[in-house]
Amino acid sequence: MKIGCIQLNVGFGKVEENFARAEEKIREAAKQGAEIIVLPEMWNTGYALEKLSELADVNGERSKAFLSNLAKELGVHIVGGSVSTKKGDKFYNTMYTFDNNGELVGEYNKAHLFRLMDEHLYLEAGDEMNRFALGDIEAAGVICYDIRFPEWLRAHALDGAKVLFVPAQWPTPRIDHWNTLLQARAIENQCFVIAVNRISRKVENFNGQSMIIQPWGEVLWVGAEDEEVAVIDVDFSIVDEVRGRIPVYDDRRPALYSGVVTEN
Ligand SMILES: NC(=O)CCC(=O)C(=O)O
Fold it and tell me: Which of 82, 91, 89 has its CA nearest to residue 121?
């Protein structure tokens, strides 16, 4: 299966520019043969949180129509990164996923809000999981900071996900955490992790390094430190073989773990 990862250079608050750029890159990935295309986090507005009342996509209508139409026209699955949305009087960081018929298969509001980037001051957290299938591929999607919560990704893996998609805006100063956490999530859940970070060349400090990690922990691909459309071949069938090699799911002892979890 060919995965198209789009390391987009997201313009701060530049919605029109971002839509045009995303469309150009999605078309480019499809032209290169991508069957699943993945975008980064908050690609419509960037982190222009103070301007959300002006810029956020009301009920995600524009983003949904955009992603659905392209998925259908190009015959590709699109894991639509995430976009800032307004639902009722609240704002969210929302991930939409469309299959290659243009059908919405996943809608997810980021569950863990990242205080260092002020998300908690502007956004509402979601509390639903994000499990979906793309054809016969059992998958799930979480967003950026969510990867610091292993129990959240484990919940999706226990629910059957074999591929975890992670759109992100992960800044350069913590890129070592990004590398390590993504690899850990792949190894512990024995699943593919496909993580797409944004890029920026100006004030904001994002250097890409998107990653595809295999269920045994091998890094299959790392993105360049520049805007990039990369199409990478992956073999999802190895998940079952890896899970058979070390039967972590059979060896889990959930009865032990519930006793050690403490509330703060
Ligand atoms: N956009 C995000 O959620 C950033 C998360 C991050 O940078 C981290 O260190 O965690």
Answer: 91
